[in-house]
Write a structure and sequence with these properties.
Layout (H helix, E strand, L loop, with lengths): L6 E9 L2 E9 L6 E5 L2 E6 L7 E7 L4 E9 L5 E7 L2 E2 H11 E8 L2 E8 L4 E4 L2 E2 L3 E5 L2 E8 L2 E9 L7 E7 L2 E3 L5
Antiparallel strand pairs: 1-2, 2-3, 3-4, 5-6, 6-7, 7-8, 9-10, 10-11, 11-12, 13-14, 14-15, 15-16, 16-17
């Protein structure tokens, strides 16, 4: 693999199927543009005469739409911004905090990253969409699934406050797991 001499930007993006690394090379003399996702080359363009523009690609198992915008900021300086699903990275992260819950835990020496997508109630574990069983209980709902022979349950209970909405709690082997901040 050639050395990345024209590397101008690196981003880490947390999606339901994991945290992905996006790297961008921009050769302002050669006009080269290369996009890597998790170390794998996704786009390579040589001899681009237009040095500004946009490169679009997908990220992860969910094929999430992404784009890198290349803008000139005077002289020979450029600014690179990443968009995820049509939103700036900052907007995407803020929106994701509202629409997902993430827990990180260690079971039997292995790290697991569990993500709940609140809108669909899909549960992901280390990049795999989990088989789940939902049930209604007295105070809300429970979503059951298994990770490495451990019984897991995400309890959804009303906070009783309109602004807070529903509180989701992950319970593994009858132990509450604190939510992670990514």
């Amino acid at each position: 693999l050639e050395k990345m001499t024209d590397l101008v930007a690196v981003w880490e993006v947390a999606l339901s199927d994991g945290v992905h690394k996006i790297e961008f090379e921009h050769g302002t003399t050669s006009g080269k543009r290369v996009v890597y996702v998790d170390g794998k080359e996704e786009i390579r363009r040589e001899w681009m005469f237009k040095l500004v523009g946009k490169e679009t690609f997908t990220v992860g198992a969910t094929k999430t739409k992404a784009a890198i915008n290349i803008d000139a900021v005077g002289g020979f300086a450029y600014e690179y911004t990443l968009e995820i699903n049509g939103k700036s990275l900052k907007q995407y992260i803020e929106n994701r905090l509202k629409t997902t819950n993430t827990w990180i835990l260690n079971l039997g020496g292995t790290d697991y990253r569990i993500v709940l997508e609140k809108d669909t109630m899909d549960v992901w574990c280390n990049g795999q969409k989990m088989e789940t069983a939902g049930e209604f209980v007295d105070d809300g709902t429970e979503t059951h699934f298994t990770v490495a022979d451990h019984n897991c349950c995400i309890k959804a209970v009303s906070s009783g406050k309109r602004k807070e909405g529903i509180i989701h709690t992950l319970i593994v082997d009858n132990r509450e797991i604190p939510e992670a901040v990514e």
